[in-house]
Structures are given as structure tokens and as C-alpha cells.
Amino acid sequence: MSHHSWLLPEGIDEILPDQAWQLEQCRRELLDLYASWGYQLVIPPLIEYRDALLTRTDQALSLQTAALTDHESGRLLGVRADITPQTARIDAHQLQRDAPTRLCYVGSVFQARPGRLAGTRNPLQIGAELYGYAGIAADCEVLQLMLATLQQMGIEQVHLDLGHVGIYRALVAQAGLSSEQAADLFGVLQRKAATDLMRWLTEHHVVAPSRDMFLALVTLNGAVDVLDRARDCLRAAPPAVHAALDELAQLGEGLELPVHYDLAEARTYHYQTGLIFAAFVPGQGYEVARGGRCDQIGAAFGRARPATGFSADLKALLFLGSMQKVSLVDTILAPAETDPELEQQIATLRAAGHIVIQALPDQVGTPQEQGAQHKLSRTARGWVLTPVTDMQ
Amino acid sequence: MTYHQPITIAVAKGRLLRNTLPLLARIGIQPLVVDMDQTRKLILETSQAQIRLLLIRATDVPTYVQWGAADFGITGKDTLLEHGGANLYEPLDLQIARCQLWVAGYPDTDTRIQRLRVASKYIRTSQAFFQARGQQINLIKLYGSMELAPMVGLADVIVDLVESGNTLQANGLVPLEHICDISARLIANKAAWKMKQATCRYWVDALQAVLSSESA
After folding, report:
1. What is the ipTM for the molecules in this complex?
2. How far, in Å, CA of A21 to CA of A27, rounded?
3. Which residues of chain A are at the B interface, by a Cβ-Cβ cutoff of 8 Å?
4. What digits encode the pLDDT tens for the residues A149-204?
5. CA-to-CA distance for A75 and A77, rounded, in angstroms?
6. B99-182 belongs to which homologous superfamily?
């Protein structure tokens, strides 16, 4: 076999011993955390019909979703690039509850093209979603759960970025832009390129007051005073804009970490509808966790329920966090003998939580190489534990 | 509020750097080297203790800023169009190193034919330009001396920056279709912009003030 065939594809990684165990510990602790908040675990499939994986409007997601043909039905299957639409499908079709539904998930996703989530193409996506409640209390809860996630992982110096897609949507409606124009203008706003924005507005005959409001939008980012400035320069904006500003103020209230407000921000415009948030940490040039409201996500599945949630790459969180190294239990090496008394002893030790490796007959390798700190030795008093010394 | 968080600025080497330094000097940022043309250093300390400059190739500037290895970058709009601009803000048009991106070729060239052969180093930008009007083209990636391609029959037209038009003229070529205006831009990493908001805002405002006073 040439070495090209066992190397992993570009952007695909795997987790090896020690780190894998550490990751598993984190996974368990986070799922326990979500369970304690009432979030129920779901395990959607890695592969399903491609149409079901794509929310109707998200073109970026469509490019990220790899396809293959189902030999059984002849239909096109997709490898999920994001678990969020799957949970929306579950909420809309499998559960069909009227009360608020809290779901959480963790699983591998595959992104056909690198670019999101820091270059990796197989993130281990972890997240939570709250369906069926349109009020800000749901946004606050989900944001708090995201922050609790980062805290649990030992990630410090978290900076929060808050935005509200409703502001841009209301201004687009006021200016009477087509959905194509709105997407185009969105790209310019995302770059905060003031001169390009001015040119775009002139070319597309966007006049005052809409023109001035779009121009103001690129400058409306910074500390909490942004909200006051926004109330001033978006005074004549539709009521939805003012409602959005109130929601932003409420969401940011009482947060004890650095908060940055950005009214022109929206990560995936086609997807999100209301309050959005992202966490950043110093030294990382990209967001480490993100979330927000996407009320229309269930529409593709025939039941648009209010929805808000967050997600992150668990592998990235592990890498950033300072979670204590898992203190591994002592490893005990048992000799390759068949003795009922020894078997009993091994079973007792394993049941007590110890790691017991039974040697294989005539195997190679010292006890140290097998990671053993103790070994079982036969004495006059039966089988006893003795420390592994360098001499052995 | 503190304006003194450390900032790294990636600057494209060469002509762009020579045009940029006077601008930076006006907001009090001067590299601490005697002879800029002689230095082989890649990281320059400046008169502002918390600010350092990285000297890199123009095409690498967006990459450094995108991944947060630099907080700010200064590079041409042509480079940004080609890069795609993911994870970047473009808060300022520095209005220096101005030129234009053109489709160029022999004066009698029909640029509307299907499967037009286009030679360029601007692959994405060329594709986007012709795609926008529904024209299929064959792209040929070149790294320099574009003018040669139509002359030896490698391509029908080229897509390249035009400053004075002298090189085109000297080789019997003319600008055919204007694609866009190009100038140097200040770009910023999104995460840095959010986490060092006061510092970023301070330097951008300072530059903005200099630019406004110059255009006034």
C-alpha cells in the first residue's frame, strides 16, 4: 500500500488515545450539563436524503453538503454538514409537540469544502436548540447555556458579540429591495466597506432615509453605547428596528464579560431571523461558538416553529480549553495464566473501577510499555498487587 | 477605555509599502529601521511600542489577517477580490496605489465570443466578471508578463491591472473593457475587531481623519 492511501484527506482529522478519552470526558460532562437544563439528547443519522438536510434557502449549506446516490432507492443522499436542520426536522415531524422543546446533540459532520470552523472538514458538532418559544427568554437561556459550555470546558477570557438580523431585514423591507439585491448588499455590509457600500447604494438608487440608515449600519459596532447611537441615527426606522434594539439591550444586560455589539453582523443571513451571538477568545482569529434565532428553519419541514440555539466544534473547544487532564486510573497488568482465583481477582478489580490488562501468552513488551503501574503477582497469600519497578 | 492593546499590521511589500509608510507616519507609526529598502527583517518594531508591522507578499496579506496572525492588513482591492474576503472587514479605502482592472487585448478583438480564452493571474475575478453576463470562457492562469499571451496566440484577451497603459501600448494592446477601480484597502480581522474594539476604532479613526483632511 502506498503511503498516499493511508494518509487522511485534506482537512480530515482523527483523535488518538489519551486525547480521545479526554474528549469523551468532555462530551459526557457537556451532555450531563445539557440534561440538567432539560435538554433532551437526539442522535440524528450521519446520512439522510439530501433534500431533508437542506433548508430551502441556505445556499452556503448546499455547497457544504456532500452527496452520494442511495443504491436502495436511487435517490440522492447527503452527508450532513450541520446538525441544526436535522433537529428542526425532528422537532417538526417526529415530536410535533406544542410545548417548548429542548433538544441537544453531538456528532460528526462533514463539510465538503473547508472554510467554516477553522479549516477542519470534520468538526465534532455539539449544540442545543430550543423550539416553540418566540420570546427573548429563550434567547437568554440558550446564550447562558453556550456560556456555561465554554466555562465547563475551561475556556477563559470569552468575548461576546451580539447582533440582530431583524434590523437588516427591516431596513431591506423599508427600502423595497429584492431578495437578490438584499443578498448582494448583505455581502458589502459584512465587509464593512463604507466606500463600496456608498457606491452600491448609488448604483441601485437607494435614497434617503434608507440610504443613510444603511450607511450608519457599518459604523454601528462597538461597546454598549452603540445601542444609544443606533436609537439616534435609526430614529425614523420601522418599529421592528426599535424592537430589535430593545431585545439587544435586554440580552446584553447583566452579562459579566466583554460584550461587543454589531448591528451589521449576520453569519448566515438566509438562516437567521433575530438575535444572534458568537463567542471569541484572544489569540483565535475566528469565533469559537455561535448561535442565534432561526425561526423559519422548520418551514422547510412544514412546521415553522420559533427556534433558537447554538453550536460549536467540540474538538476546537477541547484544544482551546484548560480542562484538567483526566487523571487516569492506575493500570494493572495481570499475568497470562489461567487460574480461577486470578480471574476472580481481575473481575473484582475491574468492577472497582481499575484498569486491568491481562497479558497475552508469550507477548512482547515490558509492563511499562503497556502503561502499567502495578502488576498482579502470585504469593503464598494468593494474588497481590505489587508496584512495577524499573528493574522489571 | 484603552487604546494601547498590541496590534499587528500586515503590509504588502514593495510599491504599496512605499505608498503606505507616509500615511502611517501621519498617525504616528514609523518603523524603527534606518533604511527601509535595505532591511531584510520581516517583523518591524515601530515608534509605537505596541504596534508592529509584518512585511509580506501582497497576496498573503488577506490570509494572515483572515486567520488572525495579523489584526490589520494593507493590500490592494485586486488581492481582496481574488481572495474572496472571508472573515475580513474592509473598513477603509486608503485611496492610494490607485489603478484599474481591465480586459485588454488587440483593438479589434471581439470579447463577446463564447469560449473566449482569457489569460490572467486574477482567476476568481475574471470568472466572476464574465459569469455575471453569462459568458463561458477558458481561463489560463499566468503569474506575470500577461501582455505576451495574446501576442503569441496563447489567449484572446488578458485581465490585468492597468496604471498608465504604457506596457499595453508598447506591445500594441489596448484596454477593452473596464472591470473595476482598484485602490489599497485597510482590512481587519473580525475577531480582533470585536475583542480589541477601542484600539481598532482608535487607529481606524486616526487614519480616517488623515484621509479626510487630504481629500478636503
Report:
1. 0.83
2. 10
3. 115, 159, 161, 191-196, 221-223, 258, 260, 262, 280, 282-287
4. 999 999 999 999 999 999 999 999 999 999 889 888 988 999 999 989 999 999 99
5. 6
6. Periplasmic binding protein-like II (3.40.190.10)
